[in-house]
Amino acid sequence: MAAMTLIEGVTMALARAMEEDPAVVVLGEDVGVNGGVFRATAGLQQRFGEQRVLDTPLAEVMIAGMSVGMAAQGMKPVAEAQFCGFTMPMVDHLMCHAGRMRNRTRGRLSCPMVLRFPSGGGIHAPEHHSESPEALFAHMPGIRVVMPSSPSRAYGLLLAAIRDPDPVIFMEPKRIYRWQKEEVVDDGEELPLDVCFTLRDGSDITLVTWGAMIKETLAAADQLEAAGVSAEVIDVATISPLDMDTIVESVSRTGRCVVVQEAPRHCGVASEIAAGLADAGIWSLLAPVKRVCGYDTVMPLYRNELKYMPSVQRILDAAHQVLEVS
Length: 326
Known about the structure:
The structure is a single chain. By secondary structure, the protein is an alpha/beta fold. It folds into two domains: about 1-185, Thiamin diphosphate (ThDP)-binding fold, Pyr/PP domains (Rossmann fold); about 195-325, Rossmann fold (3-Layer(aba) Sandwich), CATH 3.40.50.920. The chain has helices spanning about 5-20, 45-50, 60-70, 90-100, 100-105, 135-140, 150-165, 215-225, 245-255, 270-280, 305-310, 310-325, and strands at about 1-5, 25-30, 55, 75-80, 115-120, 145, 170-175, 180-185, 195-200, 205-210, 230-235, 240, 255-265, 290-295. The strands form three sheets. A seven-stranded mixed sheet has the order 3-2-4-5-7-6-12, sandwiched between helices. Strands 9-11-10-13-14 form a five-stranded mixed sheet, sandwiched between helices. Strand 2 (about 25-30), helix 2 and strand 3 (about 55) form a beta-alpha-beta unit. Helix 1 (about 5-20) packs parallel to helix 7 (about 150-165) and helix 3 runs parallel beside helix 4. This is 2-oxoisovalerate dehydrogenase subunit beta. Keywords: Oxidoreductase, Thiamine pyrophosphate.
């Protein structure tokens, strides 16, 4: 057992998967010699060789196409895009081929590939580096979308994603890559996909979020607790397929819900959760569901970046609005 950061949990999961299964290969721009732009693949090429950790040209379309082809022929590619904004050229292969492979071949072929990349803002990066496109990928049939929020969940969920027989988008919230350290055992145990994780039990209000927003949401829950409000905190973790059962069950007890996402408000995952609660949990709600989101604009640069992203105070304001409804 060792204390490690989220990014180190990713590296350890990649090494474990490659050690256990020779079909697992890692590919992407600078993943080999340089160990990745955020050092997620540091040391893997030296350990497993150039045939299993491939430095590719600067061509995201090629990386996606290679991954689909390799997966269809029995390999388990784990591709890296350097930043979330660079994934847009990959969408054609993901939506038209990876997500449809099992259906198109009537089950003769599957596409056990993982595309992992850093997502979200908060590190003052230039444009094309700070997007939160989880809703876009979640709208693609046949593809799982996963976002870890801690070192242990990064390790367990990435192992599950690599072992899954179908394509998985693994979005890594780079703002919390090195936010905290946590004891993680390299035991090869995966965590379940398609389920939410309840990080804190509560009875007065349910706070739902994922990825880097876990940081602000837990801080808001601490302040609510200090004020005598018991907040349940749910980490969605697998964005698609979405585990509404856990969220509905929580709201059936608390009666109130705030959903927090870094992505823009319009047509986001928070909207899907609010709609799911209106559909399956309407009789439990004591107040309207509030969404705390980024704004419907491009992520601003530098000093204005943190003004765009949901803050602890914005989460608290939404929680108090919900709690004041009698």
